[in-house]
Write a structure and sequence with these properties.
Strand content: over 45%
Radius of gyration: 25 Å
Number of domains: 1
Helix content: 10-25%
Number of strands: 8
Distance between the termini: 62 Å
Order of helices and strands: HHEEEEEEEE
Number of helices: 2
Oligomer: single chain
């Protein structure tokens, strides 16, 4: 019984915040901002894509900035966002693409493509394929 009481008392004491660790208000004002939360993504201003023509099997690199329309064949590709995982997370990158086809008014792709899992969101086009190579900044 006495050992249980000591364990409970020790747990209560250890769970309370230490007063000596609380910084004074002046020191807190000079402290840099905390790092982003562990599950955050960092936006980048540029993107690199690989465009594949399935008929000729030719791969063409596409590089652009966020919001800039890029042309490939009859496709118009606009990247709305390109993000990378923070340094404290497993490496990964993703881009949100808006894709239209000037020859096929019914075709449109609006969605995320993920570097580590290209099959998670696949653009279904009969002639062209797009892959994310990376975000750059």
């Amino acid at each position: 019984m006495r050992v249980s009481l000591l364990l409970v008392l020790a747990a209560v004491c250890l769970s309370a915040p230490a007063m000596a660790q609380t910084p004074p208000a002046a020191a807190a004002a000079q402290t840099p901002a905390p790092p982003p939360p562990p599950d955050s993504w960092v936006p980048k201003p540029g993107v690199d894509l690989a465009a594949l023509d399935k008929i000729t099997a030719k791969v063409t690199p596409l590089a652009g900035k966020i919001g800039q329309a890029m042309k490939f064949g009859s496709l118009s590709v606009t990247v709305r966002s390109c993000i990378i995982r923070g340094p404290d997370q497993p490496a990964d990158q993703a881009a949100f693409l808006d894709v239209t086809d000037s020859r096929d008014a019914g075709f449109a792709f609006h969605g995320w493509v993920i570097l580590s899992d290209p099959a998670a969101s696949v653009m279904q086009h009969p002639v062209y394929d797009l892959r994310l190579i990376g975000c750059r900044g």
